Structures are given as C-alpha cells and as structure tokens.
C-alpha cells in the first residue's frame, strides 16, 4: 500500500521536550548554584580582607596604646607615616582610627606625665625643704657670706637652685642699697660735722690772724710764719689758714700804712732775693749730685762701712772665685803647698797677718781690730790682682808671695780711696747743710726788707 502523507502521523516531541526542559532546568540550576558559589566565595574573600584589615588595625592600635612616654610616642608617630602603613599593610588598615588613636594617646601620655611630674616635684620639694630653709636663713642673715657655689653644692635639686640664686642676687642688691644709703647718711653727717668744724676753724684762724697782727712791730714774713706755726699747734688745717693768709698782705699793709705801690716795691725786692736763693739752691743741688757721682766711682773695697768678713768668709770667697781644686799647689817662700780647703786656711791666715802688720806699720790701722777690718777687702783685692797679672807665669796657681808683694800698692791705693771717700762724704754733708741754711737765710733777708720799709715809713711819718 502506498504510503501517503495522510498515512504519516506527526512526530511526538513530548518526551524530548520534557528531556530538554529537564536538562534546561538542570543547567539553569547548575548555573544558579555556580553563581551562588561565586558570590559566596567573593563574600568570603571580602570578609577575610575586612577581617585582616581589622586585625592589622588592632595590631597598630595596640602598638600606639603601648607607648607610655613621649619619647616612645614621638618615635612611633615618626614611624607611622602613610608610606610606612602602605608598605606594611597595604590598604588593609584603618588609618583614620590610627590617627585618632595617636591623638588620644598623646593626650593620655601628657596627662600621665604631668601627674607623674607633679608628684615627683612634690616629693623633691619635700626633700629640698631642709636645705632651702637653711640657705634662706643664711642669705637673710648675711647674703655676702653666701656664694652661688654654696647653693650649687648644698644638696638642693637643680630645679630649686634658680629661685635661691635669685633670692641671693636680690638680697645682695638690697644689702648694697642699704650700704649705699647708710654711706650717704654717714657722708651727710660727716659733711655736716666738717662744715661745723670748718666754721670753727675759720673763726679760729681769723682770731689768730688778728692776734698776730695786733703786734705793731711784726713783719709780714714773720706774721705768716707765726700764723702757720700757731695754726699747726691748734690743729687748724693749712687750707683754712691759707684762706686768711690770702688777705694778710692787705691787712698788714693797712696796719703799717703802706700804699699798694709801696707794697709792690717791697714784694719786688723780696722776689729778687728769693730768685737769688733759688739759683743758689739749684747750684748747690747740682754740686751735691756731682759729689754723689764721684762717691759712686770710688772702688767698693775702699768705702767706709765695708761689710766685715771673717777669715772663713775670705777662704770661701777665694775658693769660689778661683775654683781651687784639691790637686792645685801654691808657692809660699819658694815651697809648694797643697791648696785644698784644709791647707788654705793656714796660708790665708799668714797672708791676713802680713796685711794687718803692713796696715799698722803705715799708720792706717790704729789698732789690730781696726786693721783686721780693713785687711779682708784689701787682701781680696791683692789676690785678684795676683790672679789677673800673673796667670801667664804660674799657670793660674795662687802664689801668696806675689800676693804679699801686691799688698803695699793695694794698701796705698786703699788709703787714697778711703781718704777720698771720707772727704767726699764730708763735702756732701757740708753742702747739704748749706742747702738747709738757705731757708733761714732767705727768711732773714725777706724780714730785713720789710723792716727797712717799715723804718722808712716811720721816718717819713715823723717828718711830716
């Protein structure tokens, strides 16, 4: 039978559709579950990231809260910079909480340190109090007896020292001010007393001048000298006397009837005489200087007042000057002797005796004692000359025969110098005596000029 389209039935897709629908549903459900798993995983990652951020934040906050001092806080603050936090934690840290915590911890540390400092300061004040009280009492009693070093070494803490230093400075200033005020008062009292005394001296000086001028026969020069002498006896200062002496000339001229022209004539004559004495003084002082220079040129060994030397001193001087060693020999009377310190004393004693004998023979030494005083410097000079002139012949040895030969010349020279020294010294004394006499001679001549003027005035008055 032929197959026709009519015989063909339509295909049945119901099972396939069911299968497809079921598969689609299964696929969609799988995708939903996959999406949910992805979402869950993402949520877990976000939760883990947030959790790590919180952990990192808590770690940093714990470090901030652990800072107990400003030094630790400052170091932590310098460390927790944005770059450091980014490098250390990345973005997993809450910086706003950290910076807020830093500010809070700054306040906390400062508050705690302030309380600690206040407590420590209170305890230190308690420890300082005995020292401060003791120093304060000393300063109040006498600040000049306390120094800054006393405060620094007293055991007081450094914090308390500035107040004590200021107290000391102020007390010293006040003490100085009180001293100045006291000095001003003392000066005032002294000036007041001096003014009263000056008035008293002035009155005494005026009375003294009047008393002296009451003598009609006294001259102007004598009046001045008398007033000064009596003022000195009365204890009146020259300054007060000189004020009254300034008008003495006019009062004396009035008492004796001299005109101003006549007084000028008297003063001119006196000035000429004073100039003459001044010239004499200058010449005399020049002569004294020349005599003193001449006295200085006289050899020291011959001057009167030469220091007396013992024989032992002469021995030591010879040994020191000429460096005599133990193996050096001297020649006395043609024989050699060891010139060590032991034998030198005997040889020197012989030389001293010879010197004394020659001084007595020449009449220079009046006695052995006087001759012995002269003998020491003379003998040293004779030895010096022997060493100076005879070194080339005796090799530097000390030859006492040559010393004895020098004695006559040295003694003669000594006597000449001694007489010259005495003559020069006497001349100086006489010249000084003449210089001292000039004052009295000048006063005598000045008085004579005044007396002559007064005599002429009296003669003139008697002839009128």
Concise overview:
The protein has 464 residues and is mainly alpha-helical. It is built from 15 helices and two strands.
Q: What would you note in describing this structure?
A:
- By secondary structure, the chain is mainly α.
- Among the domains are: 17-115; 296-452, no CATH class.
- It has 15 helices and 2 strands.
- It has helices at 14-66, 70-79, 82-89, 95-141, 148-152, 161-213, 220-234, 238-245, 248-256, 260-297, 311-322, 341-361, 368-389, 391-394, 400-463; strands at residues 329-332, 335-338.
- The chain has a two-stranded antiparallel sheet.
- A hairpin with a 2-residue loop joins strand 1 and strand 2 (335-338).
Secondary structure elements and pairings:
Layout: H1 14-66, H2 70-79, H3 82-89, H4 95-141, H5 148-152, H6 161-213, H7 220-234, H8 238-245, H9 248-256, H10 260-297, H11 311-322, E1 329-332, E2 335-338, H12 341-361, H13 368-389, H14 391-394, H15 400-463
Antiparallel strand pairs: 1-2
Helix pairs in contact: 1-4, 4-6, 6-7, 6-8, 10-15, 11-12, 11-13, 12-13, 12-15, 13-15
């Amino acid at each position: 039978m032929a197959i026709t389209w009519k015989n063909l039935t339509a295909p049945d897709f119901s099972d396939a559709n069911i299968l497809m629908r079921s598969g689609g549903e299964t696929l969609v459900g799988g995708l939903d579950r996959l999406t949910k798993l992805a979402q869950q995983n993402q949520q877990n990652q976000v939760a883990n990231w947030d959790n790590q951020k919180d952990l990192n934040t808590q770690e940093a906050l714990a470090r901030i809260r652990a800072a107990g001092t400003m030094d630790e806080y400052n170091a932590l603050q310098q460390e927790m910079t944005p770059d450091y936090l980014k490098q250390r934690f990345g973005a997993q840290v809450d910086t706003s909480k950290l910076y807020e915590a830093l500010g809070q911890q700054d306040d906390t540390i400062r508050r705690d340190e302030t309380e600690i400092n206040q407590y420590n300061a209170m305890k230190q004040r308690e420890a300082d109090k005995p020292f401060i009280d003791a120093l304060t009492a000393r300063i109040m009693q006498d600040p000049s007896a306390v120094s800054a070093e006393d405060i620094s070494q007293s055991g007081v803490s450094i914090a308390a020292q500035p107040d004590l230093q200021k107290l000391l400075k102020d007390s010293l200033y006040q003490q100085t001010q009180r001293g100045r005020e006291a000095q001003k008062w003392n000066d005032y009292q002294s000036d007041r007393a001096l003014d009263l005394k000056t008035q008293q001296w002035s009155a005494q000086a005026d009375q003294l001048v009047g008393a002296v001028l009451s003598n009609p026969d006294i001259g102007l020069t004598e009046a001045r000298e008398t007033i000064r002498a009596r003022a000195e006896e009365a204890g009146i200062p020259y300054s007060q006397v000189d004020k009254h002496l300034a008008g003495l000339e006019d009062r004396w001229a009035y008492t004796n009837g001299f005109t101003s022209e006549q007084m000028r004539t008297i003063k001119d004559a006196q000035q000429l005489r004073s100039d003459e004495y001044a010239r004499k003084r200058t010449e005399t002082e020049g002569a004294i200087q020349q005599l003193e220079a001449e006295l200085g040129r006289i050899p020291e060994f011959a001057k009167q007042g030469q220091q007396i030397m013992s024989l032992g001193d002469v021995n030591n001087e010879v040994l020191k000057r000429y460096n005599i060693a133990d193996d050096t020999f001297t020649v006395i009377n043609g024989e050699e002797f060891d010139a060590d310190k032991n034998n030198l004393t005997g040889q020197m004693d012989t030389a001293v005796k010879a010197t004394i004998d020659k001084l007595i023979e020449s009449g220079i030494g009046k006695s052995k004692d006087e001759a012995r005083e002269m003998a020491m410097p003379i003998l040293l000079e004779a030895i010096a000359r022997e060493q100076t002139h005879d070194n080339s012949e005796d090799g530097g040895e000390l030859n006492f025969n040559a010393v004895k030969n020098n004695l006559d010349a040295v003694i003669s020279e000594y006597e000449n110098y001694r007489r010259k020294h005495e003559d020069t010294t006497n001349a100086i004394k006489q010249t000084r005596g003449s210089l001292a006499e000039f004052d009295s001679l000048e006063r005598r001549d000045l008085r004579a000029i005044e007396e002559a003027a007064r005599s002429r005035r009296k003669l003139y008055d008697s002839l009128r």
